[in-house]
Amino acid sequence: MSDIREASVERDTARLPGGALGQVGPFLMLAASALWLRARWDDLPARLPVHWNWRGEPDRFVSHTAAGAAMPLFLGLGLCLLMLAMQLGLRHAAPRTAMRPFSLRLVLAGEYLAAFACCGVLAAAVTAGRLLVPLLVLSGAGTAALLASTIVMARKTPREVRNPAAWRGLFYVDRDDPALFVPKRRGYGYTFNYGNPMAGAMTVALLAVPLMLAFFALSAR
Amino acid sequence: MRIDLEAAAPAWRQIADQLRAALVSGQLRPGAQLASVRELALDLGLNHNTVAEAYRQLAAEGFLQLERRTGAVVLERKSPRPPAGEQERFAVRLRTLLAEARAAGVPASALQSALRRAVEELS
């Protein structure tokens, strides 16, 4: 099997999408929500709803503490930091392919959606669920738009299989390849190069984040 | 840049050969900044040392200046006076290569036009 590799010899001058302001946006949304929460702190009830059943009635609450009330913002901060790290990883440790700029924009859009949804959950909790329906509608529309964009991009992007000999099923292992992220062999997106020592640590970190968030959420109840 | 890892020539030589062709033909002008070793290794999926070897070879030939901060920069390079016997040495290499191609069945007319095209591109 032939193994042809192609690359540009020009410098990689690509920057993260959106520029500095675009990158700061999700964090500004979270910070503005934190200030809004602080301004309304004395008016909040003793228990804040954080989960609603399918009829829109609250069925889980957190106590009126800083950790409990700001839990959606902490969750949003964790998600935004994770997605910022993903963008930096794609920019500096993934090969320059046609998929990379699309993927960077997609992750940034996901970061905005995550920040919006977390701020929305806080707003719904503080307003006793009055903002729940608009939040669900807008978050659902945003998710649908992201999914549609992903499908369109996946169809537009030419398929590239990196080093066919390095694939072990779904896993890519090439110790000579300095990339941390490589395009998936099937489907759209990236996977780790497990020949890179960072990949194992990143996988553990990615698994640890949702576990820690779940633990945090349960302990705050 | 396009390299074939199944080819007989090692990857670093393929990189050096293609860059040299681009430099000699003027596709890469003096002052141009090339992809850093890290960037090119990342894009090609090769060890950093492979790309660094190619860059070092071209730096030794006077084509590139290698700096830690700016990476590889194309230098203004005057064509050197060929040492005695150099033309004859290349003529022998060319003859060997042409014989190999003819033995593999490549028509003489195709070789002539390929040679003319290559000379025009690199002049």
**Number of DSSP strands of chain A?**
7
Q: What name does CATH use for the topology of the largest domain in chain B? A: Arc Repressor Mutant, subunit A
Q: What characteristic shape of chain B results from the CA principal axes?
A: globular
Q: What is the CATH architecture term of the largest domain in chain B?
A: Orthogonal Bundle
Structural class of the secondary elements of chain A?
Answer: mainly alpha
What structural category do the secondary elements of chain B indicate? Answer: mainly alpha
Shape of chain A: elongated
Uncertain residue segments of chain B: none
Largest sheet of chain B: 2 strands, antiparallel
The average pLDDT of chain B is 91
**Cα radius of gyration of chain B in angstroms:** 16 Å
Rounded mean pLDDT score of chain A: 88
Total tally of structural domains of chain B? 2
Spatial strand order of the main sheet of chain A: 2-3
- Give the N-to-C terminal Cα separation of chain A: 57 Å
Rounded to an integer in angstroms, the radius of gyration calculated over CA atoms of chain A is: 21 Å
